[in-house]
Fold:
Amino acid sequence: MNPSDEAVLIVEAPASDVRLLRLNRPDKRNAISTALLLAIAEALEEGDATEAIGCLVMTGGDKIFAAGADIGEMAPKLAPEGLADMRPALWRRIRAIRKPIIAAVEGWCLGAGNELMMCCDIAVASREAKFGQPETNLGIIPGAGGGATLARIIGRSRAMAMVLTGKPITAEEALQFGLVAEICDPGAATGRAVELAQEIAARAPLAMQQGKAVVKAVFDQPHNAHLDFERQAFSLLFSTADKKEGVAAFQEKRKPQWKGR
Ligand code: COA
Structure:
């Protein structure tokens, strides 16, 4: 097979209830072309719609998660084409996935790569990973959450420094700022992410989805409305078979058998 025929995204099944998406454009440092973004949205949606899958993992290569949007694709674009771009709709599809997504980051995680990582719900990073929003180096700014979402996650001043200087931060800083949840040895991020994904996939599916929806809403809702949403999601789970089973299993001192209903 000609290397250019290789899929830009490789979808693997490291366990029967986990789907792993591996960005695969090593020659372009996993630059997120529109074709790759579409493949990511479609693969996530497919995992979301497959009942046996409880959790998704997103990873890149050994030395790179992703180097950002595809600069070559972007080079000839002018504002009118930017406005007609399908990318914002693809990002919305990725943000709308209901099942938890774990990011596993080795090496560079830049621009749209960092934005993709922020669409995931938990991130595990190698201690040699580096995170940045270098778009201002090109005379532009982030366009898919590298300003808006980043500021909500790590705070105004730190996000401002990252966006305005374009300088990357280390994995230790990313952990300290709350951008990632865990740091591991180089080469161990995907394995650890799959382990976490299996742990989550083995838990009550509806509680995992509602838990994700409630925590994620911190970006979208004022506090009072957010508290109401949390309470509604909490109440809704009281009518599920899994709540009955979870409570019964605790009282009967046995492991619960989840049904996802
Ligand atoms: N879009 C398109 N192509 C990219 C790319 C991107 N975001 N990032 C890297 N590439 C390409 C390079 O053009 C080069 O292609 P070539 O071999 O055809 O010349 C190839 O990937 C290797 O890049 P190189 O810079 O030599 O790799 P490196 O390992 O030395 O450095 C990075 C890796 C990620 C530090 C560096 O490539 C980089 O800074 N990339 C741009 C990051 C960026 O500005 N992102 C924001 C985009 S809006």
Notes: The chain has two domains: 9-201, 205-252. The two ends are 44 Å apart (CA to CA). The domain at 205-252 is CATH 1.10.12 (Lyase 2-enoyl-coa Hydratase; Chain  A, domain 2).
